[in-house]
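user: At home tonight, take the chain set out below, taking as long as you need, and be ready to discuss the fold:
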Amino acid sequence: MDRDAMRQKYIERHRRRHGQRPAADVALRETQRFLRRVFNIREGRAPYHVIRKRFVNGARLTGTHLCILIVAMVIACIGLDTDSQIAIVGAMLICPIMGSVLAIAYGTATLDRPLARDAVAGLLLQMVFCLITSTIYFKLSPVAGMTAAIADNSTPTVWNLLLALVGGFAGGLGMSRDQEPATLISGVAVATALMPPLCAAGYGIAAADLTLFLSALYEFGINVVFIALSAEVVLLLLRVPLKRDLNDDGIVTEAEDAQAQARSRTLRSRIVLATVVFALPCIMLTSNLVKAADDATPDSFGAASTAEELAVVCPGFKEYTVGMRTRADAEGAGTTHEELVARVVTDAELSADEQNTVRKLIELDVEGLDRVEFSVE
């Protein structure tokens, strides 16, 4: 080693010993400190017992809770049936389903199995009430039919997934703050839209449309799973204590503590794997939607927007065209007339219910449609 190199080595050693850092290192450390301070979500956190009380109370079912739920579902049904965005937003604001979803997140993050089990049971019970209410409404409604709002809330895409993720993160943060989170939770409820997909699923039952029912129910499931996942991440970042008293005897042993930590790590990895698998159909449906949007189909009669919807709800969708076609009359010799015809191409034959759903979606965008042709290529 030459003399200059040795000299530089001793200088660096002297600087480290006396706490002196190069200007670049100092700037980097200051930047890191600034970012940690700005994005420190632990600052302003409520006490852990207050956080637990908020999450647990949100999942409690009472007679008042269920009455509000039914009223919210009726408002949502009216909104979807009449394409009224005001009614839909109002239903989302008063809908109490979000409490059960956040309680599931808390029970999972803290290994509180009884709480998570009760929250899941409560969510399923609320789903049953919502589906029964919406089915009865659409059975009794004299004007019930496929609307743009029903179509929008039965087409799960990656954007629904992303909204659920950021909404759940905001909800988790709001529930953990010192101040009351009422306003923030209301905003999260509107952004993530838990109520309208359940309402659309009820319409699927009333119309005996299995494809629409499953699609709407899957969109609701996407919202629930990713809201809970994102809220759980917030709780883990806040280091909310695990439930270490596994046998509920009032004594936490070292063995129970180690077992709780191991269960927590195993549960996290399983949850991540399960949510990725659950999201795969949504990603595939969105891929079909993007491909349809890139299609060069002429945009007459709203063909582009209709193709995007069909790419999501129509199994094996490949192509959609619509336009005027000349057809010879059966009665008069040599006479012809024009009719408006839509053509849907898929890679497999559609069932009668699937064809009926596709036909209703097309009729929403194409007025005066004479018929729909289905072909397999």
In short: The radius of gyration is 28 Å.
